């Protein structure tokens, strides 16, 4: 953490910016308290970039809306029931929430919300002491409610110590909002902080409480964790406390599954290493998008089919077809977490294809096999390159170098074929209309079968020209009769 003087300078710079100064003045003129709160304060104190401006106020939602309407035409309600109004002020998007307290009933997936009257009451209900910090505006007074806790440690002390801890008892905090347990894992990864022992123990004790949270909210928090620079510490925390078992049991099932050689690592450790290496390659190759959530999901889950396919044969362990089984398991789990269809389809495709390359290093592929590899990968070819390279975690340097050189070679051949054949858009020389015209047949399944035959010819032999394609089509059609 940077020196306090520098941190306060950073907060002062935010307070002096045009949108913040105008908002603070407008709320003060109407007799309302107004404060920058949570993540922006934490990040400014840590010397991290501040990307979002979150505020809290004593004004009720209708009053907040009226004030914002007087400042800008760009006002919208993020969640009136939760007291949050958003606006664009001087080009900045801001969210302003009324002081509140929210609590989950035992059987509810939605919190009951009531509005409060003091900044201290609002901060006490927040997830962690490092987020229970507020800068009152325009007076620039820092409020650290954590100092009033039984431990005597507040947000500033926890920032300095790199510690994640709840303002009150973790039992009460996680009972009020179980999603905070997932946020603890995310902040541990994002900030490189340690979770306090009593907080960690409560995460394990109240893991089942996560079941009342909607799949969409769990998904969103999981995605935020995966998009950090190094999500592995957070994932370890979720597995160790039993939280992962509540929404991603296929991951925890990997812990005791030995790898193909049964020696230096289990499948779980291997999967975490693959995730880390995929993230490193994502950066090294200048991959776009970055972070790539589809790639990271596939890297973490690429071996989840192994527990179901593990067999002990001739003194060894095999996992035949774990790629296909894993793709099916991933589809099912990602759908239950309410991921969109495109993400589910693409992640499952990567998992299903992640083993395809490993025969290449033993026997070089034909051009036909390379074309099929590109065709099957589709729009995920670059992600498949990264995943396949990341999947090499062997300690045998000679083997690792052999696999790396083999994949360098296949990428070179793909590039050469792509330049010569427009490989990214492999299709037959004849389309459906032309097939019907040549064969004199109406639309129907036969046209599809004919097109598929010509596509196989194209993949096997490369471009053959329209005249040769027509001859092959007629010969095929004669065989069908």
UniProtKB/TrEMBL annotation:
E.C. number, please?
2.7.7.72
The cofactors named for this UniProt entry are: Mg(2+)
Provide a Gene Ontology MF annotation, just one. metal ion binding
Q: Which one Pfam family would you cite for this protein?
A: HD
- Record keywords: ATP-binding, Magnesium, Metal-binding, Nucleotide-binding, Nucleotidyltransferase, RNA repair, RNA-binding, Transferase, tRNA processing
Please give the superkingdom of this protein's source.
Bacteria
Q: Which SUPFAM superfamilies match?
A: Nucleotidyltransferase, Poly A polymerase C-terminal region-like
Q: What top-level class of enzyme does the UniProt entry assign?
A: transferase
Q: Name one GO biological process term.
A: RNA repair
Q: Which Gene3D superfamilies match?
A: Beta Polymerase, domain 2, cca-adding enzyme, domain 2
Q: Where is the HD domain?
A: 267-406
Which protein, by its recorded name, is this?
CCA tRNA nucleotidyltransferase
The source organism is Leucobacter ruminantium
